[in-house]
Amino acid sequence: MKRHLLKTLILAATIIPSVVMAADASTKMPAPTVSDILDASGITVSGYLDVAYNKMNSTGLFFNAVPGPVSSGLTGNSRIFDTPGARADQNFSSFNLHQAALIVSKMPKEGAGGYLNLTAGQDAATIASTGFGASSPDNSSHMFDVTQAYASYTTGSLTIIGGKFATLAGAELITTPSNKNYSRAWMFGWGPYTHTGTRATYVASDKITLIAGLNNGWDQVISTTPTKTTELGFILAPVSMFSLATSYYHGKEMGTAVVGTRRYLDMVGTITVSDKLNFVFDYANGRQDAALTGGGKAKWNALALYANYQFNDTWRASYRHEAFDDKDGFRSNLTDVGGTLLGQKLTSNTATVGYAVAKNMELRGEVRLDKSDMDAFLQNDGTAKKNQTSYAVQAVYQF
Fold first, then answer.
1. Cβ pair 333, 291 in contact under 8 A
2. What was the pLDDT predicted at 131?
3. Which pLDDT score is estimated for 75?
4. How many structural domains are present in the chain?
5. Domain with 230 in it: what CATH number?
6. Is the pLDDT of residue 397 over 70?
7. Separation between Cα atoms, residue 367 and residue 371, nearest integer Å
8. Could you tell me which residue, 70 or 200, shows the higher pLDDT?
9. For residue 29, is it within any domain?
10. In a domain, 137, yes or no
11. Residue 138 domain-assigned (yes or no)
């Protein structure tokens, strides 16, 4: 009896630790991943790649362009973003690495946060700010840009940010996935991109949002003017199918050779007919003092109309019509052979088809027709025509 009891105890001493160890192994938690750590901290990390091929039947420059390589968005380009490295002696045809972007943010509903948007690629030269990459006459070597970097603090309905941030103006954005077309509208390219300063946003209700800020001006990290630019915004959403965002900028900016007051009004309206169909209009009106020879004022206005239709989860189509009246040539910088600014009226029609290869990747095909009331578009033989056409294929991958 004693011998049997002894054998039982020895057997139990051998089995029980093994069972306990097996139980511990089965309940042991796996090591946290980077995503788990970020989620727990409230930090989000995302980004995208934007690559494209674009072909035009013109050089992609206006008639007054300086011969030789110029970066996209600088004086002389007849397009914004989509003709980097355009040359006066050849029709534009190029594969383009537009943007490789990274966005890191922590934007809590209450308390302190921050936002960082880094952009590498050919578009960095276009969006470069004074004092932070932009230079004259050419900044094509600027291939990396700190596009946005700001701290934020939210309390209740009020959010205050300080640093470098995207403009309120315009229906289109720097971030490629936010746009429906491959090419950018002239009114986006000839408006502000970013501002450096401070901005306060107050959500009065689900129908009204008020915005006010003070900054260095248009695309200036280092201020080049003696005073600051005032920023005002108002977002009205009276019903679920309609919203209207109005922004106004007033401050000193560089004219043709001296500093003068610039006033810029932009209004974006969105009509959501259904979850598949929406329409957008964007109206802009600008004036620059001391912009013309002798100190005269320059005026411009523009209107863009958009229609977007989502056929299904895979296919969509977008159309944009734009009319830009550069009354005094100040925004397009079209000049005669003597260097005098020439006003021109520009129109453009753009059709884009999007195909979702995967949930996070889209292929876009686009056809765009541009027209001017002047012989404005430079040809590779040195002459100029009133129209230009382009065809493009773009791939946008998000992560």
1. no
2. 82
3. 57
4. 1
5. 2.40.160.10
6. yes
7. 14
8. 200
9. no
10. yes
11. yes
